[in-house]
Amino acid sequence: MKIYTRKGDAGKTGVFGGKRTYKNSARIECIGTLDEVNSTIGLLRAKLGPEHEWQTNLHRIQKDMMDMMSHLARPSDSKKENPNPKPIDGAAFCEEWLDALEASISSPSDYFILPGGNEISALCHVCRTQVRRGERTLVTLMQEDPDSVEEYVMAYVNRLSDLFFTMARAEMDKEGVAEEKWQLFLYKRKKKK
């Protein structure tokens, strides 16, 4: 079977249930952005190496993202049901990992920090910013077709950006790389006054 079908040559692509939509629609923009995140996670995993302690959790996130993208590809008016699993516990999974990472870091997260540090930390920040863009596209899709974006997807994606921020910090802490601090979080500045 050939990889090309020529069906997208006119600027449209298929969505779950058989309908076709423009490739720049909110739905396809959203799925495409989350696909970028998934690819960057793949690059992060490749840089970490196969024995790294984060591999299992990152692998799970990649599979969950594939499932979420498949559900986002289904317009709410589609009569066909999507048989793929729904990672409804994704936000809780991220929170558990976040708590463990936070406990391992020697200093609290009180500052906005400049992305960078080392290659792994910088890649975590790339994932974080791509996830944030994905979250914005989810909101656009939600405004266009509210019933096609389930609450668990929004919660999971929101937690992922926090997770990648914390992973970046954990990597730097583990490697003894100093964070380049920008300024205190706003709520921390208010407490100091």
| Mean model confidence by pLDDT | 88
Outline the biggest β-sheet.
Answer: 2 strands, antiparallel
Helix content: 55-70%
Rg over CA atoms, rounded to whole Å, is 19 Å
Q: How many strands in all? A: 4
Q: In sequence order, what are the helices and strands, one letter per element?
A: EEHHHEHHEH
Spatial strand order of the main sheet: 1-2
Shape estimate: globular
Residues in β-strands, percent: 5-15%
Task: Report what the structure shows.
The chain has 193 residues and is mainly alpha-helical. It contains six helices and four strands, in the order E-E-H-H-H-E-H-H-E-H. It has helices at 26-48, 55-72, 90-104, 119-144, 151-175, 186-192; strands at 12-14, 20-22, 111-113, 181-184. The strands form two sheets. The protein has a two-stranded antiparallel sheet with strand order 1-2. A hairpin with a 5-residue loop joins strand 1 and strand 2. Helix 1 (26-48) packs antiparallel against helix 2 (55-72), helix 1 runs antiparallel to helix 4 (119-144) and helix 4 (119-144) runs antiparallel to helix 5. The model has no long low-confidence stretch (mean pLDDT 88).
